[in-house]
């Protein structure tokens, strides 16, 4: 059986890092399936423009679909969105991707080689470098047995021989996820920039609370006055530096990202002013209380 590889990406308003996210994988995969949408419809930023630009460079490789993905209660039907993407996959291996995830050329070359060694059946795991606060620090996780460990996250790569399908939470399920079919590659990395940018953080937390992804502890904020939720989210983001899991990053980022000097506070002032206008509430006092500044 010939080896063919599909990239699967569910996206919404992912313009900022989308080109850097896709330009390396597109050199190596046979197909890129991009499904663009949310409960309110397709992206409202320049996501489609980036896809169109990349499609000119890689004709017939990108399959783009846009739609509206909403559950009956109005929350995001992320599982449905990924199910639509999976229905268009033609490869016998799938790389699960995100619009704020970037690969280096070296890591992608190693990954393709590893997939070839696992073919025709295999599940491949490898670390996710999760940038936190700035590009100089990464978010590490702890457990009872091991204090610091890179995040793996969702299954990065899987064979379609395991009859994959997505549940309501967009987690992929396979026929056999036993350790005997899995490979862990310690020297291949994905670089995640999803914690950079203030507006991105706000939108993500708002979506998660309204979508009930944080459980009962946030139910009072979900059902209460929206300005209370807005204030909680802003305070939560400003409190990031108080969390204990940020360690210095001494590695080498993908070439396309090295000079960007990103921060979780990027665009904070503009976002605060927009939120005050949008939700008719005052946030500048909260920002000053946390040590920030807005003109």
CATH topology of the largest domain: Spore Coat Polysaccharide Biosynthesis Protein SpsA, Chain A
Cα-to-Cα separation, first versus last residue: 62 Å
Q: How do the strands of the widest beta sheet line up side by side? A: 3-2-1-4-9-6-12
Number of strands: 14
Strand and helix layout:
Layout: E1 5-11, H1 15-23, E2 31-38, H2 47-57, E3 62-68, H3 78-87, E4 93-97, E5 101-102, H4 105-118, E6 123-125, E7 128-132, E8 134-139, E9 157-159, E10 165-166, E11 172-173, E12 182-184, E13 190-192, H5 198-210, H6 219-223, H7 226-238, E14 246-248, H8 268-279, H9 284-289
Parallel strand pairs: 1-2, 1-4, 2-3, 6-12, 7-13
Antiparallel strand pairs: 4-9, 5-13, 6-9, 7-8, 8-14, 10-11
Description:
This protein is an alpha/beta fold. The chain folds into 2 domains: 5-192, Spore Coat Polysaccharide Biosynthesis Protein SpsA, Chain A; 198-245 and 254-289, no CATH class. 32% of the residues lie in helices and 20% in strands. The chain has 9 helices and 14 strands. It has a 7-stranded mixed sheet with strand order 3-2-1-4-9-6-12, sandwiched between helices. A 5-stranded mixed sheet has the order 5-13-7-8-14. A two-stranded antiparallel ribbon has the order 10-11. β1, α1 and β2 (31-38) form a beta-alpha-beta unit. α1 (15-23) runs parallel beside α2 and α5 (198-210) packs across α7 (226-238). The termini are far apart. Mean pLDDT is 91; it is low at 144-148.
């Amino acid at each position: 059986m010939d080896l063919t590889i599909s990239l699967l990406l569910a996206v919404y308003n992912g313009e900022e890092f989308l080109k850097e996210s896709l330009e390396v994988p597109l050199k190596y995969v046979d197909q890129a399936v991009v499904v663009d949408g949310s409960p309110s419809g397709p992206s409202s930023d320049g996501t489609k423009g980036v896809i169109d630009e990349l499609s000119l460079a890689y004709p017939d490789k990108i399959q783009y679909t846009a739609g509206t993905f909403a559950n009956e209660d109005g929350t995001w039907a992320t599982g449905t969105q990924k199910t639509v993407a999976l229905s268009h996959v033609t490869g016998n291996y799938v790389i699960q991707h995100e619009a704020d995830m970037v690969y280096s050329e070296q890591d992608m070359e190693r990954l393709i080689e590893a997939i070839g060694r696992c073919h025709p059946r295999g599940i491949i795991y490898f670390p996710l470098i999760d940038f936190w606060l700035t590009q100089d620090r990464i978010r590490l996780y702890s457990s009872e047995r091991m204090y610091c460990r890179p995040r793996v996250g969702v299954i990065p790569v899987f064979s379609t021989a395991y009859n994959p399908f997505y549940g309501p939470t967009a987690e992929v399920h396979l026929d056999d996820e036993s350790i005997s079919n899995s490979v862990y590659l310690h020297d291949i990395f994905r670089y995640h920039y999803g914690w950079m940018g203030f507006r991105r953080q706000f939108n993500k937390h708002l979506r998660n609370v309204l979508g009930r992804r944080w459980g009962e502890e946030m139910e009072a904020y979900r059902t209460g006055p929206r300005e209370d939720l807005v204030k909680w989210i802003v305070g939560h983001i400003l409190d990031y530096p108080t969390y204990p899991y940020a360690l210095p990053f001494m590695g080498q980022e993908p070439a396309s990202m090295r000079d960007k000097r990103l921060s979780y506070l990027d665009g904070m002032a503009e976002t605060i002013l927009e939120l005050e206008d949008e939700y008719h509430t005052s946030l500048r006092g909260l920002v000053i209380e946390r040590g920030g500044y807005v003109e």
